[in-house]
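Support reply, case 0932

Customer input (verbatim):
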Amino acid sequence: MSEQPPRRPAATSGKGGGKPAKTGKPYRRPQKDPVRMLAFEVLRAVAERDAYANLVLPPLLKKARLDESFQTRDAALATELVYGTLRRQGTYDAVIKACIDRPLREVDPPVLDVLSLGAHQLLGTRIPTHAAVSASVELARVVLGDGRAKFVNAVLRKISAHDLESWLEKVAPPYEDDAEEHLAVYHSHPRWVVTALWDALGGGRAGIEDLLEADNERPEVTLVARPGRSTAQELLEAVGEDSALPGRWSPYAVRMAEGGEPGALEAVREGRAGVQDEGSQLVAMALAAAPVEGRDARWLDGCAGPGGKAALLAALAAERGAFLLASEKQPHRARLVERALAGNPGPYQVITADGTRPPWLPGSFDRVLMDVPCSGLGALRRRPEARWRRRPEDLENFAPLQRGLLREALSAVRVGGVVGYATCSPHLAETRVVVEDVLKGRGAGAAPVEAELIDARPYMQGVPALGDGPDVQLWPHLHGTDAMYLALIRRTG
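Our regenerated output:
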């Protein structure tokens, strides 16, 4: 049930159906609801263009606010409809499937998006049943036509007959019969993702359920005060004591507990602060804190885009008089890095280069961060659509790149220097297995590397529940961060 084939994008949103046959009642034109129209547009962009909601939604909200009738509460509702529907897509697919007489793959994708939006209003919000159904049917009339709106009406009325818990009892197998499928449907994750997260987390039922629930919660917006340029206290005062909280672990972090627009803050506009998950901050800080033997003058961020870790590293390096080279393969991401580092008081340079074919000489750096491309399974709170977009075979495609980047990072650092291998994924195939394979020389043509793992836990600002080490895995449900992974490695020969 949780392993439905990906929804097929449609060429258009399909306004077929036309006006109904003449009856005794005069025809009433459908009324456009700007909130639900906006939510539908975002879901279509996600399905048709593989877009990410966190990139598509903000400009649409900004444009909508130009209309005085579009209020702050409308923006909040549109945001909830988009992210709630994407997070719970697997559960809603299972419920919708139980209410129709055909396979889901035979339902036109725009129709399925309208049904999912309606299902979320019925099962995941406090919107009254009659309002959720009527608003969804009205949306269907606008974007699908009157003919298919009748189908939407019939399905949503079936869904409205039960609450979410009752539907879950109907569509999910008992935990005792199939634990992973039960969790997949209950917590709206593909089964293979449940399996991977459970393997990485270990433990029993309670821990994995806490993790899956945390993935479905809306994350706080976390700011970073870049050292030497801003302070957490400045950000707390700018946001307001009633709307902000200090970071849990990072002394540079401030959490915008009540939401808000980071771009409205002067420090963010000037680049003295930015938006950065606290787990990402901890990774950069740990690399900067790990001891090196001898000089500490040249640092490298080998996969620097979009620039959050690079900006924090540059600020930390500047406090010690060290130079940071920030390298990024993609030109458009390199421009983002340049923007993030603009105004840094210390020496730095941003280049566009492939980390697997680097332009620098071996042994050129004292510290190297290699935050490698990955599946992104550690950031499902922020990008819920990624769980439906990724496939197990994606990990096989990332594997050679991750190993190649780590080998080059270990080549770039001098003897006695430190490499930080990081990834925003808890999947063992992207974390511990990569590190072990590279250090032991596993793989065609590979040779063992003269290096040793450093216990990263002492450099994590006193963060608890970090496991047995020496590497570190952060978790949303334990630490309130993205599921960042970090291994610190010292080059020994």
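We compared this against your earlier run and they match. Two observations from our side: Residues 392-412 form the longest helix (21 residues). The mean pLDDT is 93. Please reopen the case if you see a mismatch on your end.
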